[in-house]
Amino acid sequence: MRITRRSSGFTLVELLVVIGIIVLLAGLIFPQIQNARRKGQRVKCVNYLRQLGLASRDYQEDDDTNLYPYAGEGCTGTEHLALLVVEKYVREPEMFKCPASSGKREAVKNEDKTFTLEKINNSYAWSSVPLSDADESDVYLGGDGAVRNGPVSNNHLDGMNVLRLDNAVQWIDMKKKRDDEKKIPEELAAP
Question: pTM, whole model, 2 decimals?
């Protein structure tokens, strides 16, 4: 009788089974990781909008006209928000880029540690009408999407964050709205 020696390594079938199990587990976990990442971006966006709201409140209190950042009629959201940069209420360029935004890049600081806010650096829409403390507190001051009598173009897949005049940030879930309701008030000027 002949005795065969079996090597102590894994067979090809055993290796393929282990690799298959790893791939299956990764496939189950990956969507959860993506959801956690999106929620983290949403929270960071809320923080940025709230900080812009606080800077706007400071601007409004110091401004002679008592208005929130308003560059004039027909201006873009970026032009309104640029007042916060020019007047040095906001000094960090990352505040103007929603973490979920694609196609936008962070502004680069100059040698004197200032930066210029341009459309490519800003992902937030801003009120295109002059607002003051006399307005209702639930009026929208800004948001992380652009709206103009049409569908919402937002940074988040399923909704958008909006900043109200009372500095509260509200999540608007676009999944729960019907198509004819997917319009945010048109006073938000596109970035």
Answer: 0.77
